[in-house]
């Protein structure tokens, strides 16, 4: 076990930061990396075509049946399923590739396919010929030379794939988050929290940066997520604490310090309050399951 969670960057040397590869090839070439928890700096779309897979995303096992797409956001801690027999394709792309305009960045950031507010999406595409065709068109275009049309064609195909996938997810029972000021405030709070949760743990601090009151922020997150801002802050800190305890060999003191706790006792008390276990008990219980 390492002292940090392995960071995986997009493969260097490609003309554009997008590729389609077979899941089998990925497993055979990168088994040591992908079979262990790692944090990838790019987006994943798995297409399981045969068999069944169970991927681990931030401690949640996600089962994917044949004929399904699985979407995993960048920077999630994940581990590939290298045990179950399954076949399929994997589409990888970066924000740098997709975000041609500010509107592209806004779309990708708020997409229901890559949104940490929501469940990790798996959609059934067995009967959706359009999605299968566009996925195949991306794979075919990637075999072409990087001429003046190459980027725009790939970008448009990927955008259409995402739009059609969103439509399909809604058809399959996704409960929409209604666009509103409450949602806008919640998204802004999430972004600020992602960047500062190690150093800023107060609701008042985030509300102040957003130029709203604590009461208004609480109303927004409660309406959108049925959670208070303090609960969301605690969940984000605890997720990172669990990641570091399970996926690294850092000492309890080091984990606490990394999360902004200057005294180990304060981190231990905080962790026990939210899990009813000490960090050591949590780590030991995880590995003896």
Mean pLDDT over the residues = 91
Number of strands: 9
Question: Major sheet: size, sense and barrel closure?
Answer: 9 strands, mixed
Percent helix, as a range, is 40-55%
Which structural class best describes the helix and strand composition?
A: alpha+beta
Question: SSE string, helix = H, strand = E?
Answer: EEHEEEEEEHHEHHHHHHHHH
Output the radius of gyration. 20 Å
CATH architecture of the largest domain: Sandwich
Which descriptor suits the 3D outline? globular
3D structure, described in words:
It is a single chain. With 289 residues, the protein is of the alpha+beta class. The protein has two domains: 166 residues, Sandwich (Jelly Rolls), CATH 2.60.120; 107 residues, Orthogonal Bundle (Arc Repressor Mutant, subunit A). The protein is built from twelve helices and nine strands. Strand 4 and strand 5 form a beta hairpin. The longest helix has 22 residues. It is globular. It starts with 5 loop residues before the first strand and ends with a helix.
